[in-house]
Amino acid sequence: PTFHACVYACRYFVVANAMVCLFSAAALAACRSRAAMVPVMVGDLLALALLYSAVGAAAEFGILGERGNSHVRWAKVCNVYGRFCERAMAAVIVSLIAAFANLVLLMLSILTIHKSSSYY
């Protein structure tokens, strides 16, 4: 059962990244109108939550593969599949950097709209 959880976490990671990529492309096209800015920002927040959860799930199983787990009698597998583990962890790190950059861009967009609004 633990191996299947690892496979599902990797699939979740790939599908979540693809969904966030597609949403970002659609949001970029939708941001031409000022009325779509708030719904796009809410969607960006949801996409970030999805992306961070996928990165966390994939990183957890990456660490489990590298260190093993004596409670479930999982041996270390990264010493056997070293090249795969290195590439998987590189993908997780790059995705985490992209998620952080997306968060910074979203915060800058919110600040820009807040400064230009006439509410305050």
Oligomer: single chain
> How many whole angstroms does the radius of gyration measure?
18 Å
Share of residues in strands: under 5%
Average of pLDDT: 82
- Helix fraction bin: over 70%
Instruction: Say how many strands there are.
Output: 0
Helical region count? 3
CA-based shape: elongated
Structural class: mainly alpha
Any low-confidence stretches, pLDDT <50, length ≥5? Answer: none
Distance N to C terminus: 55 Å
- The secondary-structure element order is HHH
Largest sheet: none
Considering the chains and any ligands shown, give keywords for the structure.
120 residues, mainly alpha, 3 helices, 79% helix, 0% strand, elongated
Question: How is this structure best summarized?
Answer:
This protein has 120 residues and is mainly alpha-helical. It is built from 3 helices and no strands. The longest helix is centred in the C-terminal third of the chain and has 35 residues, at 82-116.
Molecular structure report:
With 120 residues, this protein is mainly alpha-helical. The protein is built from three helices and no strands. Helix 2 runs antiparallel to helix 3. The model has no long low-confidence stretch (mean pLDDT 82).
